[in-house]
Amino acid sequence: MLARKISGGYSLFPEATGYPIARLRPVGGEGIFNVLWYSHRDRWEPVGDFGGVHLPLDEALEYIAKDPEGCFWH
Q1: DSSP state of 31
Q2: Can you tell me the distance from the alpha carbon of 14 to that of 4, in angstroms, rounded to the nearest whole number?
Q3: What is the structure's pLDDT at 37?
Q4: What's the whole-number mean pLDDT along residues 45-65?
Q5: pLDDT tens-digit map of 13-54
Q6: Distance, CA of 52 to CA of 38 (rounded, Å)
Q7: N or C terminus of the chain: which is more exposed, having fewer CB within 10 Å?
Q8: Where are the alpha helices (DSSP H) in the chain?
Q9: What one-character DSSP code corresponds to residue 17?
């Protein structure tokens, strides 16, 4: 997995394909990140229907790995 800092956030890409998987955008200054997914519209969008998922970094990475919404690993 590759992580790149782009425009104030961190984008995650698998080394094999380079296709965007997730983006972590800092929210405030307390180490909380908004988790975004790369949608079929070719842009980053919040996960879920209610404004996104906001988690500390370790929980955000675990959330992406488990993919409960089925949006990251397709």
Answers
A1: T
A2: 11
A3: 94
A4: 91
A5: 988 888 899 999 999 878 999 999 999 899 999 998 787 899
A6: 13
A7: C
A8: 57-66
A9: T
29, 18, 38, 30 alpha-carbon torsion, rounded to 10°? -10
**Best CA proximity match to 69, nearest among 44, 40, 37:** 37
12 and 22 Cβ atoms separated by less than 8 Å: yes
Measure CA 50 to chain center: 16
Distance separating alpha carbons of residues 38 and 48, to the nearest angstrom: 13
Question: How many angstroms separate the CA atoms of 4 and 15, rounded?
Answer: 12
Where do we find the tokens 């394909």? 17
| 7: alpha, beta or left? (left if phi > 0; alpha if psi -120 to 50) | left
Which SS3 state, helix, strand or coil, does residue 3 take?
Answer: strand
